[in-house]
Amino acid sequence: MKILTAYFSHSGENYFAGKIINIEEGNTSIVAKKIAAITGSELFEIKRAAPYPIAYRDCVKEAVEELKAAARPALAENKDVAGYDAVILCYPNWCGTMPTPVFAFLERGAFAGKRIFPLCTNEGSGLGSSGRDIKRLCPDAEVAAGLSVKGGNARDCDKDLAAWLKKNGLKS
Ligand SMILES: Cc1cc2nc3c(=O)[nH]c(=O)nc-3n(C[C@H](O)[C@H](O)[C@H](O)COP(=O)(O)O)c2cc1C
Question: Which of 32, 45, 120, 142 is most solvent-facing, going by the fewest CB within 10 Å?
């Protein structure tokens, strides 16, 4: 099975244990790299062409506006998923669902017949409506039950990751 691990992640300011701090690597990026290493899959970063603000409040404001407008922003790079059987899709929960660049990635790709495995890092909301949103955007894909990882546990989620990947036949 040829697998692509695609991820969106935002470095810059974020909340950790109730405090805003500046982080160099986003939580989802840390988890996605672990998954790519475990599964031996190719890694692709879903990135908005125009970077999001580093300041947390500005970023949230823009994310809310984009979600309300159902924006599908231009991506820094597009990825043809034709050659893959499965996509492990990693993203943070932004305002109850995926960031809009992930919507754009799914809407523009040819996902019919592919398997999608959602992984969502978050601060407590779990996957939110992202599983349903993925199914709506890719009605002809097979969407697995996703894994929620608490953002602050990104460096320390190996056991949960291994169990989820194994359950889904993505790791021996
Ligand atoms: C714009 C924005 C919106 C967010 N909305 C939520 C939310 O609704 N629920 C939640 O649990 N966490 C929310 N978070 C927290 C992130 O999901 C969490 O910190 C995640 O691990 C960040 O991943 P990243 O560092 O890879 O971007 C939000 C963060 C940002 C920046």
Answer: 142
